[in-house]
Design brief:
The chain is 12% helix and 34% strand. By secondary structure, it is mostly beta strands. One of its GO terms (molecular function) is structural constituent of ribosome.
Length: 247
Amino acid sequence: MWSVGSKRTGLIGVKRGMSFIYNELNQKVPVTLIEIEKNRVNQLKKPSSTNEHHFVQLQSRNQLKEFPVTENGIIPINTELNVSHFIPGQFVDIQGTSNGKGFAGVMKRWNFKGLRASHGTSISHRSQGSTGQNQDPGRVFPGKKMAGRMGGETTTVQNLKVIRIDTINNLLLVKGAIPGRDNNLVYIKDAVKKMLIDTKNKARKFGYTAQQALPYGVDDLPMPTISQEMAKSLPAVLQAPAKPQKD
């Protein structure tokens, strides 16, 4: 049973594209499809003098990824994890590599305003302007926002809702877009803000139990993960209930 403050391991997935589904209220929901290929626990690491967390190292394809967990989130080595590790209705953070966009100017890359359209400005409308300041310091500081290669960076999108899981095809459907192109690897874990911080605040301020503090439609989270026997007994498709709208 999940408790407030518990950290579970994440999963390694593959982005398969975007689509849309309809929920119980006949609302159109944009979703990203993530395939959870075979995830196996490869190694466990104990806390050190520089880190208080345990670490679970997962392997999928030839990729290794470590996730920090609390002591009750430790999973035995060689355990296989699947899409049933996540529950429809919960929120997740997804990390991936953003699309590379090539060399970009400051207006596209950093949202600079640019220079004036007229009044003496000539062929410099989209430039960044002066960067070196006055004679003192008379140089460009390191880290200055300038034109350069855009994209291709590690990016995390937070608080995406899990709309549906497909236990037959090992598909995870989350609401909204995630970084990267199709067939890119992504890392999925419980949302830090909406699953950890929010539940702690609800328990501290209002005296909620762990189950009461979870998001709408989520009764519990499998801790440290769902067993293989229970995963086999699940239906083919599980979908998050649509939250009724207030009149």
